[in-house]
Request: fold
Amino acid sequence: MNGLINYVSCGVLWLGLLVKAPDLLRHRRDPYLRAICAVLGLAGLCFLLGAPPTIGAVNRLSGVPNLAAPLTYAAITGYCAASQVLVVHWRGGPRVRRTARRWTLAYAVVLLGVAVTFALGDAPVERRTDLDTYYATTPFIAQMIVLYLVAHLTAVTVTTVSALRWARHVRGGLRAGLTLLGAGALCGAGYSLAKLVAVGARWSGRDWSELGTTVSPAAAGLGALLTVVGVLVPLAAPRVTEWRRARRTYVRLGPLERALDDLLTRRTLRLRRPRFASPTTRLVWRRTSIHNALSHLDAYFDRDLYDRTRAGVLGTTGDPERAEAAAWAAVITAAVRYEADRAGEFPPQGGAGRFPGRVPGPAALGRIADVLAGTAPVPSVPAVPSGRTTAGTV
Reply:
């Protein structure tokens, strides 16, 4: 009777709505986004109004026994309409607006039917958890119950079929989200079916009210959880993929940063390490540190060493990218040693060995780090040929 499942389900759904709210504020005219937010908001309202404590409070404050029932059914009907509009926008096509209006009109009629049948019926005894089975044989109230359950079952069935059918034609996070959304709608169908079976049993003189008071809330709660996760997964999937890629790149660049560590520390070229940062932010920090070090080593790069190393590796492997990475690794290693040995001296100025316009890009930095990690051998060459270092630009 404490309505814990209802309140938790409502909180989960409205949490999903809170996540989507910024997008809705930025794109108020997007009908697809409005439909998603309406589904989340109305589904949460259904659970809130259907909680036994809320039912008691509504009935007590209004002075009308069981007024909470048609209000809950109205929220469920609105949820059904929003679900159908969402499905229509999923499918797309030339008649999206017309079809969406038809579904909205159809559920408006259902909503009117719920209000009229409740007004015509007589439900004087408050029932917070088993109204469906208790009044299953009461004129007009029984019709109200069947009307909202059939409308709900229709909506979740169409949503289930559409979501799972579309999921077969997409990949990645969208496919996972649609599958979860379809599973959530299927659980919603379990809610309606359990209620309908309990009502049918009541018509035949049996008491299966446990289906409506135990099985239905559990199915609805699970459906709410799956629905929210299904909506959020497509939003989170690209970000998670980006973070995983950034994390792999961050780890991959580790050998290159370690090769430059002494220079970064001695020259205070490394920025302060960010705390509690995302993988993307940490990757930017590492790349910035590396570029700071390479910029400082600019004047110590040996073009002759670069050309000889590149030619040697290219002749051995026939791979230009690997040859370039090996050449850069050799040049960087030699420049770090040369700069450390002559830390108190000014770097040589000018020189014929400069690297005009040559800056290793993000992909090249990764390959250079692979060479330094030992995944690709570097031919043995003297660090600085003829005792001379030519200057260059990274």
About this structure: Residues 16 and 228 are 6 Å apart (CA to CA). Confidence is low (pLDDT under 50) at residues 381-394. The chain has 15 helices and no strands. The longest helix spans residues 209-252.
